[in-house]
């Protein structure tokens, strides 16, 4: 019984950190003093999200309950929390407040749609269909830390792009084959504790360093969108070419 509950403890930890990130962003004040810590808590939540499934597979403790709990937690930690962090630090003082509200809402909505699709549609082995919400949320929350260097219009556009990538059909590598040996599960609490310690000591530096590989992973999808667009263009061109002889024969 306890063994089956261990993966869910990681998932609940993920949810807890997402809620704390929202509270920190809400209480960040005019100087956004807590934004860096809120963003890094989303990163640590991503670590927990990656561990819960691996621990479940290592312990052979996978369940439908754990799957649903994971999805519900992800909506909060990687959908609502990152969108709220971005809104607080970059969007709330914009003149176009209605646009800021809509863009902020679109992100967790697309995240929820992506999770629902993931739960009901079988994907391609070795790949996710669409940008995973933990990666999208982590990119958004760390991107918010650059609000002084990046114009609000670009941050708005970036939020929309990340939202669309989540509900796209672009294939992203999933790395699920990188598992945890059953004998090494006892190391996971040490890894989490170390990550939290580093997050508290170096919140800004660590989150901005992690932002780079996450951004590269997300941008991988733009290349996929380009390939999909080319493929669609070729199909339409081929269909048009096949249709023209048929029309000429009909008129003849």
UniProtKB/TrEMBL annotation:
GO terms for cellular component: endomembrane system; membrane. The keyword Transmembrane applies. Its EC number is 2.7.8.8. Keywords: Lipid biosynthesis, Lipid metabolism, Membrane, Phospholipid biosynthesis, Phospholipid metabolism, Transferase, Transmembrane, Transmembrane helix. It comes from the Bacteria. The chain crosses the membrane at residues 12-29, 35-51, 72-92, 98-116, 128-147, 153-172, 184-203, 209-225. It catalyses: a CDP-1,2-diacyl-sn-glycerol + L-serine = a 1,2-diacyl-sn-glycero-3-phospho-L-serine + CMP + H(+). It is a multi-pass membrane protein. GO terms for molecular function: CDP-diacylglycerol-serine O-phosphatidyltransferase activity. InterPro entries: CDP-alcohol_PTase-I (IPR050324), CDP-diaglyc--ser_O-PTrfase (IPR004533), CDP-OH_P_trans (IPR000462), CDP-OH_PTrfase_TM_dom (IPR043130), CDP_ALCOHOL_P_TRANSF_CS (IPR048254). Its main location: membrane. It is found in: Endomembrane system. GO terms for biological process: phospholipid biosynthetic process. Belongs to the CDP-alcohol phosphatidyltransferase class-I family. This is CDP-diacylglycerol--serine O-phosphatidyltransferase.
